[in-house]
Amino acid sequence: MTTRPDDEGDAARRGGVEPASGDDERGTSAETPEQAGKSASAAGDERNEDSVSSVESASDFEQFRDDLDAVERRIAGEIDPGVRAMVVAGAVFLLLVSLVLPHAGAARGFDVLLNTDVARIEHIGLPSRVFVWFIAVFGIGFSTLALMTRRWVLAWIAVAGSAVASVFGVLSIWHRQTPGLGNYVGAGPGFGLILGAIVAIVLTFHWVRVVWSRTALHLAAEEQRRNAAASAEERDRRRLTGES
User: Fold this and answer.
1) How far is it, in rounded angstroms, from Cα 155 to Cα 140?
2) Phi, psi of 103 (to 5 degrees)
3) Who contacts 193 (Cβ-Cβ below 8 Å, separation ≥6)?
4) Which of 131, 156, 206, 210 has the greatest number of C-beta atoms within 10 Å?
5) SS3 of 108, please?
6) Please, which residues have CB within 8 angstroms of residue 97's CB and are 6 or more apart in sequence?
7) Cβ–Cβ < 8 Å for 151, 76
8) Residue 84: pLDDT band by 50, 70, 90 thresholds?
């Protein structure tokens, strides 16, 4: 009688013999506890190394943060007038010219500034003297310093003084056209006075544009600094709490 392959397989199973392929598969797929422990330890070491490297990077950045903040403050305190620097320089030169020209009669700007006998003869009033001193100190002095040093604070002082000078310049022109005590009528406003008042107004306008642009830049820089600090704080919090 002929034996079929199915009958031989059944006989082998009844005899307690299991296929060899099953033993090989279980032997290769099974992992010992020692191997599992080594894998977990290696993964933990990698995580520890990543956290240590992150902390070291953060500490390295903290060492240079003070230097970066100092550089940022120094840059934020400077102005960049650009093309307006030429306009401001030209206005300062014209203010110097206005001091040489007559302000009232024979009294020139320097006579009013130094309160000479010529200025007293022409009955130069208080508005004209205040105007001349303001254009000399702020319009010429602080404007020149601000252009040379590019300091934002000096530019603010220059614009404030030039604004006050503009007001007193207009008041001085009006004062020279108004009769004095006893209906005294002196010489009218000279070309130097009119030129100085106009130049003071122009100088004030351009200084305002320069310092206002720096003010907007300062606000933007402060907003960016606050956002960067908030982001850094959030990253530190996530690193300490272990969040991804």
Assistant:
1) 12
2) -100, -35
3) 98, 102, 103, 104, 109, 128, 131, 169, 172, 173, 176
4) 131
5) strand
6) 192, 195
7) no
8) confident
Mean predicted confidence (pLDDT) in 180-203: 84
15 or 188, higher pLDDT: 188
Res. 29 pLDDT band, cuts 50 70 90: very low
In terms of Cβ atoms closer than 10 Å to its own Cβ (0-12, 13-18, 19+), residue 150 is middle
CA triple 65-68-72, angle to 5 deg: 135
What gap in Å lies between CA 46 and CA 50, rounded to an integer?
6
Total number of residues shown for the chain: 244
Helix axes 33-76, 191-241, angle to 10 degrees: 170
Cβ-based neighbours of 199, under 8 Å, separated by 6 or more: 91, 94, 95, 98, 139
Given a contact cutoff of 8 angstroms between Cβ atoms, the answer to whether 140 and 158 are in contact is no
Choose among 139, 219, 129: nearest CA to 175: 129
Q: How far apart are CA 84 and CA 79, in angstroms?
A: 11
Question: pTM of this prediction?
Answer: 0.62
Using an 8 Å Cβ cutoff, are 196 and 133 in contact?
no
Sign of the dihedral defined by the CA atoms of residues 177, 178, 183, 184, in that order: negative
